[in-house]
């Protein structure tokens, strides 16, 4: 994979498959290709070689209006529009208030929203200017989870969250994965690993490891222990 208009490869040799309900943690240092992979999975960028398939269909070629309701995406930079909280959670489509409130409860935001004078009709201002970074990220998470999509990609979803917000994130992922939603989480923080079934390790754009979480963690520990003369790192 390369950035649109560029020829330098950002990702190479990445190959993995997930089943409904799997939760994949993608880890690696900065510039390892995690955000590029997120964009490929969502069909935002095309692949130079190979395909990203959902139910056997190339996601980049899929009609985005047809695909949109079935997937959820939380990018690193959460973009909210100048509309109401309900509009933003419902992706500015047909607003199902029962579904909006259900997903707000799922991410732990319902009580706060209900306490506002205008509740779910509170307008956010340009780019959600009235919200803190953590609130913006949790509203973005609610938008990604709206109406229980089959595939959700979360790029660094806990970067601005406090302890309560991270606990709500982990609980939401755990609950929806048991209902069949597949998650891919790009992350630098290890707390979310507790709810993950699989791990993918990237380094300099190349796949270093993929498999069940405990097997990958054991392999990383073994490699770290060898590198440090017997002292495990994880």
Question: Which secondary structure elements does this structure contain, and how are they paired or packed?
Answer:
Elements: E1 23-27, H1 34-41, E2 53-54, E3 57-58, H2 64-67, E4 71-74, H3 85-89, H4 97-106, H5 110-115, H6 133-145, E5 151-155, H7 163-178, E6 182-186, E7 198-203, E8 206-212, H8 213-227
Parallel strand pairs: 1-6, 1-7, 4-5, 5-6
Antiparallel strand pairs: 2-3, 7-8
Explain the overall architecture.
- The strands form two sheets. The protein has a six-stranded mixed β-sheet, with helices on both faces. The chain has a two-stranded antiparallel ribbon with strand order 2-3.
- The chain has eight helices and eight strands.
- The protein is globular.
- The protein is of the alpha/beta class.
Quick synopsis:
By secondary structure, the protein is an alpha/beta fold. Helix content is 33%, strand content 15%. It is built from eight helices and eight strands.
Summary tags:
15% strand, 6-stranded mixed beta sheet, alpha/beta, 234 residues, two-stranded antiparallel ribbon, 8 strands, 8 helices
What would you call the structural class? alpha/beta
The sequence of SSEs as H and E is EHEEHEHHHHEHEEEH
Largest sheet: 6 strands, mixed
Instruction: State the share of residues found in helices, binned by percent.
Output: 25-40%
Estimate what percentage of residues fall within beta strands: 15-25%
- How many DSSP helices? 8
Can you list the strand order of the major beta sheet? 4-5-6-1-7-8
Q: How would you name the oligomeric state of the polypeptide chains in this document?
A: single chain
Molecular shape: globular
Low-confidence stretches: none
